[in-house]
Amino acid sequence: MEKGEQRECFAADFIRSNDDNYFDENSQLFVLGSLMEAGSDTTRVSIYDMIAAAATYPDWVERARAQLDKVCGANAERLPEWSDREDLPYITATVKEIFRWRPNLAEIGAPTSLTQDDEYEGYRFPQGTVFVWNAWAIALDPREYAEPERFYPERFLNDDLNNPLKGHWGFGPGRRVCVGWNVGEGNVWIAVARLLYCFNFIEDKANPIDTMRIPQIAKNKAPFQVKIEVRSPAHAALIERTCLDAVDAP
Ligand code: HEM
């Protein structure tokens, strides 16, 4: 930054805007580190969840593929783009189902506490009471979702499809909802669309995936065993072509 060579980004902007030293160095690092942590592991684990769901409930993958092939070509003509969103509602529904099926990293959310005494359904809660919410119990409650253990994107093909916060609590409830949901949803969407378009995910029957216990923190080893193969030589060529552009990017 001192040399003026850094790329423009939120961090550079944030540090520059602190000319009155309102945030000391620790606080600055904390703000920027929290954003990195909040946005990276959540996205990574959501992608793990999709792969686990594809390997253990392969029926929905066929339906996702049919739509992807219709839009991008059945012979690996091109990768899905964000601009395909309108034509790929099944992918949007799949992303919502990922967030519902295994709400990740915030199983009890970020605790919040009352700033004043409150009352709810006859229960009194004094100021300072800490509330958490049980994300998994809600996500897997058969009164909320039919066959909750099943990965079934169709449950989100409804009028609320294009509201990423509606129908699940993957980003948390109420006003304290994840501030990065738009970025998070978009990143998961493009990753899911492209992975499903290009790869098959096959469960090793001798080593079944325990989808209730996908490790969320272990970063140095695979979270579960799964066989990943490219769909066809044409898909392999498409990946190579597209990755070359990425390698050449400045
Ligand atoms: C798939 C991606 C993501 C998921 C599933 C996710 C999920 C969540 C959840 C469940 C919470 C707790 C909300 C609550 O307790 O009510 C949260 C909070 C938060 N998220 Fe995300 N998040 C994602 C991506 C991101 C991204 C990309 C950013 C920023 C770049 C981000 C920044 C934050 C921050 C700063 C908070 C704390 C908000 C607060 O304390 O009020 N998240 N997220």
From TrEMBL:
Keywords associated with the record: Heme, Iron, Metal-binding, Monooxygenase, Oxidoreductase
Keyword Heme: yes
Superkingdom of the source species: Eukaryota
Keyword Metal-binding: yes
InterPro entries linked: Cyt_P450, Cyt_P450_CS, Cyt_P450_E_grp-I, Cyt_P450_sf, Cytochrome_P450_fung
Entries under PROSITE patterns matching the protein: CYTOCHROME_P450
Family: Belongs to the cytochrome P450 family.
Name under which the protein is recorded: Cytochrome P450
